[in-house]
Design a protein that fits this description.
The protein has 65 residues and is an all-alpha fold. The chain has 2 helices and no strands.
Length: 65
């Protein structure tokens, strides 16, 4: 009888692709919004911080799922 584990293995290439695209997206958010964020909020990273919070929440959800 084979004893199977209840934990499934992580699909590492898929995980790395998703994380890589998310990081690329954060860089693009900074590139597109740093000037207007600096003018409007006095912080060039305002929108990047909001995007990073969403990234972390999504990453935790992805790992939990």
């Amino acid at each position: 009888m084979s004893h199977s584990s209840t934990r499934s293995k992580i699909d590492l290439p898929l995980f790395l692709a998703v994380v890589g695209m998310a990081i690329f997206g954060i860089v693009m958010v900074y590139s597109a919004s740093s000037y207007s964020a600096e003018k409007q909020y006095g912080d060039a990273f305002f929108f990047v911080k909001k995007q990073a919070v969403g990234f972390v929440i999504g990453l935790v959800g992805m790992i939990a799922a």
